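To: structure desk
From: M.T.
Subject: fold request, one chain
Message: Could you run this one when you get a chance? Sequence is below, nothing fancy, just the single chain.
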Amino acid sequence: MHDPYYDKTRYRRPKRTQGHKTFEQILDHVENRLNAETMPEFALNEVAEDLGLAVGSVYHFFPSKEALLIATAHRVENKISNALNQEDFTDFTCWQDVLRQASRRSVRTFNTSPAALRLFYGATGFAMVDRGGRRGSRRGSQAMARVLRRQFEIGFIEDLEGLIFRATLITDSFWRDSVRQHGWIESGDVELSMDAALAFCRLYIPTQLKSASRPEIVA
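Reply: Done. Structure tokens follow.
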């Protein structure tokens, strides 16, 4: 079934170096405004004027304000997934501890970025991110699944990314309420959210997993 909303929130990724520079320049501008203003109101022509760009240069990548916000949200998700890929989890022997630590790492990213908090957990004006920002965008879940596969023998879970993604939706509900109450994701709510998410995961993942075998290093 065709969804007009999907067309409205789709954006075009740059293919050339100059296009990539313009694309990132636009996202930087929007993220800076989201960091500075609680509920920024702007039109695409205003973005172009602020940056000294032709209006067509903005519309070339973003057909609507919603598409621009979705692209900004995707960039935040990329930052989180990249941070997870760089995190060292090798000392963890329990998959629950890995997921809990990854959750804390993600929260640190959100709590140091007002733009990220507003995009994902803020005022209802940004509710489009709930629907469009995570559609087909499971970057964090995919990164976490890679971590678990490196650490543990978990190949018997056919859709590990989907399982982690659903667990993420559980934590999101707690984090959204926390932002509404405190203006940030409070540490106690992080732990409560992970208790709930891990309880869900344990329906599918055994409490204990074998460590993944690693090739021996021959001197």
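Reply (cont.): The chain has eleven helices and no strands. Let me know if you need anything else for the meeting.
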